[in-house]
Amino acid sequence: MSQPRQSRALVIVNTDFCGSDGDAMLGTRRGARREAEQLSNTLSRLNYQVELMHNKTAKEIEELYQQECRREHGDYFVSIISSHGEQGVIFGCDSEPVKLTRIFQILSSKKCPVLTKIPKIFFIQACRGGEFDQGVVVECDSGEPEPDGFSASLSIPPQTAVMFACSPGYVAFLNVFGSMFLQALLKVLEGEERHLALNRLMTRINWEVAFRCQARGTYQGCKEMPCFVTNLLQEVFPFSA
User: Which Pfam families match (predicted)?
Assistant: First the structure.
Protein backbone atom coordinates (compact mmCIF):
# COMPACT_ATOMS: atom_id res chain seq x y z
CA MET A 1 0.00 0.00 0.00
CA SER A 2 1.42 3.41 -0.97
CA GLN A 3 1.83 6.05 1.70
CA PRO A 4 -0.36 9.18 1.38
CA ARG A 5 1.47 12.34 0.35
CA GLN A 6 2.57 14.54 3.23
CA SER A 7 1.06 17.96 3.68
CA ARG A 8 3.57 20.75 3.16
CA ALA A 9 4.64 23.57 5.45
CA LEU A 10 6.74 26.58 4.46
CA VAL A 11 8.29 28.47 7.38
CA ILE A 12 10.03 31.78 6.62
CA VAL A 13 11.87 33.61 9.40
CA ASN A 14 13.81 36.85 8.93
CA THR A 15 16.05 37.93 11.80
CA ASP A 16 18.70 40.23 10.30
CA PHE A 17 17.96 43.15 7.99
CA CYS A 18 20.06 45.46 5.83
CA GLY A 19 19.52 48.01 3.06
CA SER A 20 20.95 48.19 -0.45
CA ASP A 21 24.15 49.75 0.93
CA GLY A 22 24.66 46.87 3.35
CA ASP A 23 23.96 48.91 6.47
CA ALA A 24 21.64 47.55 9.14
CA MET A 25 18.13 48.92 8.75
CA LEU A 26 15.43 47.27 10.82
CA GLY A 27 16.27 45.82 14.23
CA THR A 28 17.59 42.29 14.75
CA ARG A 29 14.81 39.91 15.78
CA ARG A 30 16.43 37.93 18.59
CA GLY A 31 14.52 34.80 19.55
CA ALA A 32 12.75 34.40 16.21
CA ARG A 33 15.10 31.78 14.71
CA ARG A 34 14.88 29.37 17.64
CA GLU A 35 11.10 29.74 17.71
CA ALA A 36 10.82 28.95 14.00
CA GLU A 37 12.98 25.85 14.47
CA GLN A 38 10.73 24.67 17.30
CA LEU A 39 7.63 25.12 15.14
CA SER A 40 9.28 23.32 12.23
CA ASN A 41 10.15 20.34 14.44
CA THR A 42 6.61 20.21 15.82
CA LEU A 43 5.05 20.32 12.34
CA SER A 44 7.40 17.55 11.23
CA ARG A 45 6.12 15.39 14.08
CA LEU A 46 2.59 16.12 12.86
CA ASN A 47 3.49 14.55 9.50
CA TYR A 48 4.25 17.74 7.57
CA GLN A 49 7.06 18.03 5.08
CA VAL A 50 8.60 21.25 6.36
CA GLU A 51 10.80 23.72 4.51
CA LEU A 52 12.45 26.20 6.89
CA MET A 53 13.98 29.27 5.25
CA HIS A 54 16.12 31.89 7.01
CA ASN A 55 16.71 35.52 6.01
CA LYS A 56 15.15 35.78 2.57
CA THR A 57 14.89 38.94 0.50
CA ALA A 58 11.55 40.25 -0.72
CA LYS A 59 12.15 38.75 -4.17
CA GLU A 60 13.23 35.40 -2.70
CA ILE A 61 10.08 35.25 -0.56
CA GLU A 62 7.88 35.67 -3.65
CA GLU A 63 9.91 32.99 -5.44
CA LEU A 64 9.41 30.54 -2.57
CA TYR A 65 5.64 30.79 -2.96
CA GLN A 66 5.89 30.51 -6.74
CA GLN A 67 7.81 27.26 -6.22
CA GLU A 68 4.90 25.87 -4.19
CA CYS A 69 2.84 25.94 -7.39
CA ARG A 70 5.16 23.26 -8.76
CA ARG A 71 5.25 21.07 -5.65
CA GLU A 72 3.29 17.97 -4.78
CA HIS A 73 0.92 18.60 -1.88
CA GLY A 74 -1.01 16.48 0.56
CA ASP A 75 -4.21 17.56 2.31
CA TYR A 76 -3.02 20.97 3.56
CA PHE A 77 -0.56 23.77 2.93
CA VAL A 78 0.62 25.67 6.02
CA SER A 79 2.89 28.71 5.98
CA ILE A 80 4.38 30.58 8.93
CA ILE A 81 5.95 33.99 8.28
CA SER A 82 8.01 35.67 11.01
CA SER A 83 9.47 39.06 10.15
CA HIS A 84 9.16 42.80 10.58
CA GLY A 85 6.02 44.21 9.03
CA GLU A 86 3.51 47.00 8.62
CA GLN A 87 -0.16 46.97 7.72
CA GLY A 88 -0.54 44.76 4.66
CA VAL A 89 3.17 43.96 4.20
CA ILE A 90 6.03 41.93 5.60
CA PHE A 91 9.69 42.79 5.03
CA GLY A 92 12.42 40.76 3.40
CA CYS A 93 15.87 40.69 4.96
CA ASP A 94 16.82 43.38 2.43
CA SER A 95 14.28 45.66 4.18
CA GLU A 96 12.11 45.65 1.06
CA PRO A 97 8.34 45.12 1.53
CA VAL A 98 6.31 42.19 0.24
CA LYS A 99 2.58 42.82 0.03
CA LEU A 100 0.59 40.00 1.57
CA THR A 101 -1.93 40.38 -1.25
CA ARG A 102 0.95 39.57 -3.63
CA ILE A 103 1.64 36.30 -1.80
CA PHE A 104 -2.05 35.40 -1.83
CA GLN A 105 -2.25 36.29 -5.53
CA ILE A 106 0.60 33.87 -6.31
CA LEU A 107 -1.41 31.08 -4.65
CA SER A 108 -4.70 31.95 -6.36
CA SER A 109 -6.55 29.28 -8.35
CA LYS A 110 -5.62 30.97 -11.63
CA LYS A 111 -1.87 31.00 -10.95
CA CYS A 112 -1.58 27.93 -8.73
CA PRO A 113 -4.11 25.28 -9.84
CA VAL A 114 -2.40 22.58 -7.75
CA LEU A 115 -3.56 24.33 -4.55
CA THR A 116 -7.09 25.18 -5.71
CA LYS A 117 -8.89 22.63 -3.51
CA ILE A 118 -6.28 22.38 -0.76
CA PRO A 119 -6.83 24.47 2.41
CA LYS A 120 -4.10 27.12 2.69
CA ILE A 121 -3.34 28.25 6.25
CA PHE A 122 -1.12 31.21 7.17
CA PHE A 123 0.23 32.30 10.56
CA ILE A 124 1.86 35.74 10.31
CA GLN A 125 4.09 37.04 13.12
CA ALA A 126 4.74 40.66 12.17
CA CYS A 127 3.72 44.14 13.25
CA ARG A 128 0.74 45.71 11.48
CA GLY A 129 1.42 49.28 12.59
CA GLY A 130 3.07 51.22 15.40
CA GLU A 131 0.36 51.47 18.05
CA PHE A 132 0.67 49.74 21.43
CA ASP A 133 -2.34 47.86 22.77
CA GLN A 134 -2.79 48.80 26.44
CA GLY A 135 -5.55 46.24 26.88
CA VAL A 136 -9.15 46.80 27.97
CA VAL A 137 -11.46 45.06 30.38
CA VAL A 138 -14.03 43.68 27.94
CA GLU A 139 -13.00 44.24 24.35
CA CYS A 140 -9.47 43.20 23.40
CA ASP A 141 -9.59 44.03 19.68
CA SER A 142 -10.10 47.77 19.97
CA GLY A 143 -7.77 49.31 17.38
CA GLU A 144 -8.90 51.51 14.51
CA PRO A 145 -7.84 49.69 11.33
CA GLU A 146 -5.92 51.37 8.54
CA PRO A 147 -8.09 52.46 5.58
CA ASP A 148 -7.05 49.41 3.55
CA GLY A 149 -6.78 46.99 6.47
CA PHE A 150 -10.13 45.29 6.11
CA SER A 151 -10.12 45.03 2.32
CA ALA A 152 -6.59 43.62 2.36
CA SER A 153 -7.72 40.87 4.73
CA LEU A 154 -10.45 39.90 2.28
CA SER A 155 -8.04 39.60 -0.65
CA ILE A 156 -7.25 35.97 -0.01
CA PRO A 157 -7.68 32.98 -2.33
CA PRO A 158 -10.57 30.55 -1.88
CA GLN A 159 -9.97 27.82 0.70
CA THR A 160 -7.68 30.03 2.77
CA ALA A 161 -7.36 31.02 6.43
CA VAL A 162 -4.98 33.71 7.67
CA MET A 163 -4.14 34.40 11.30
CA PHE A 164 -2.29 37.56 12.29
CA ALA A 165 -0.30 38.07 15.49
CA CYS A 166 -2.07 41.35 16.21
CA SER A 167 -4.91 43.62 15.18
CA PRO A 168 -4.55 46.15 12.32
CA GLY A 169 -2.47 49.15 13.32
CA TYR A 170 -0.73 47.50 16.27
CA VAL A 171 2.70 46.06 17.06
CA ALA A 172 3.44 42.37 17.60
CA PHE A 173 5.76 41.55 20.50
CA LEU A 174 8.94 39.46 20.34
CA ASN A 175 11.74 38.91 22.83
CA VAL A 176 14.70 36.53 23.20
CA PHE A 177 12.33 33.76 24.31
CA GLY A 178 10.03 34.13 21.30
CA SER A 179 6.82 35.91 20.38
CA MET A 180 3.50 35.92 22.22
CA PHE A 181 1.69 34.70 19.12
CA LEU A 182 3.92 31.88 17.85
CA GLN A 183 4.62 30.62 21.37
CA ALA A 184 0.84 30.28 21.83
CA LEU A 185 0.62 28.47 18.47
CA LEU A 186 3.43 26.15 19.55
CA LYS A 187 1.70 25.39 22.85
CA VAL A 188 -1.55 24.53 21.07
CA LEU A 189 0.17 22.31 18.48
CA GLU A 190 1.97 20.39 21.21
CA GLY A 191 -1.19 19.90 23.29
CA GLU A 192 -4.51 18.16 22.86
CA GLU A 193 -5.96 21.34 21.28
CA ARG A 194 -4.23 20.36 18.03
CA HIS A 195 -7.14 17.98 17.40
CA LEU A 196 -9.62 20.88 17.24
CA ALA A 197 -11.14 22.20 14.03
CA LEU A 198 -9.04 25.07 12.69
CA ASN A 199 -11.45 27.88 13.62
CA ARG A 200 -11.66 26.60 17.21
CA LEU A 201 -7.89 26.13 17.35
CA MET A 202 -7.35 29.74 16.26
CA THR A 203 -9.85 30.95 18.83
CA ARG A 204 -7.91 29.04 21.47
CA ILE A 205 -4.73 30.85 20.38
CA ASN A 206 -6.59 34.16 20.75
CA TRP A 207 -7.49 33.20 24.32
CA GLU A 208 -3.92 32.17 25.17
CA VAL A 209 -2.45 35.46 23.96
CA ALA A 210 -5.22 37.69 25.36
CA PHE A 211 -5.31 36.24 28.87
CA ARG A 212 -1.88 34.70 29.44
CA CYS A 213 0.51 37.05 27.64
CA GLN A 214 1.66 40.51 28.64
CA ALA A 215 4.70 42.58 27.70
CA ARG A 216 7.40 43.27 30.28
CA GLY A 217 10.28 45.69 30.60
CA THR A 218 9.95 48.88 28.53
CA TYR A 219 6.43 47.99 27.43
CA GLN A 220 5.27 46.60 30.77
CA GLY A 221 1.56 45.80 30.74
CA CYS A 222 0.99 46.10 26.99
CA LYS A 223 -1.12 43.39 25.40
CA GLU A 224 -1.62 41.79 22.01
CA MET A 225 -4.76 40.55 20.29
CA PRO A 226 -4.40 38.12 17.38
CA CYS A 227 -7.15 37.94 14.79
CA PHE A 228 -7.96 35.75 11.83
CA VAL A 229 -9.94 35.77 8.60
CA THR A 230 -11.13 32.68 6.74
CA ASN A 231 -13.16 31.77 3.71
CA LEU A 232 -13.02 28.00 4.27
CA LEU A 233 -16.35 26.35 3.52
CA GLN A 234 -15.98 23.39 5.85
CA GLU A 235 -14.36 22.46 9.15
CA VAL A 236 -10.79 21.25 8.71
CA PHE A 237 -8.47 19.50 11.16
CA PRO A 238 -4.98 20.20 9.80
CA PHE A 239 -2.98 19.24 12.89
CA SER A 240 -4.85 16.17 14.09
CA ALA A 241 -2.13 13.76 12.91
Answer: Peptidase_C14
Q: Across the chain, where does the E strand assignment appear?
A: 7-13, 48-54, 77-82, 85-86, 89-91, 97-99, 120-125, 160-164, 174-175, 178-179, 227-230
What are the residue numbers of the active site? 84, 127
Domain 8-133+154-231 falls in which CATH fold? Answer: Rossmann fold (3.40.50)
Per-residue burial over 65-93, b if 16 or more Cβ lie within 10 Å, else e, is beebeeeebebbbbbbbbbbbebbbbbbb
Which of 174, 121, 163 minimizes the C-alpha distance to 15?
174
User: Among the residues of 51-127, which ranges form H helices?
Assistant: 58-68, 100-106
What's the pTM value of the predicted model, to 2 decimals?
0.87
All structural domains of the chain with their residue ranges: 8-133+154-231
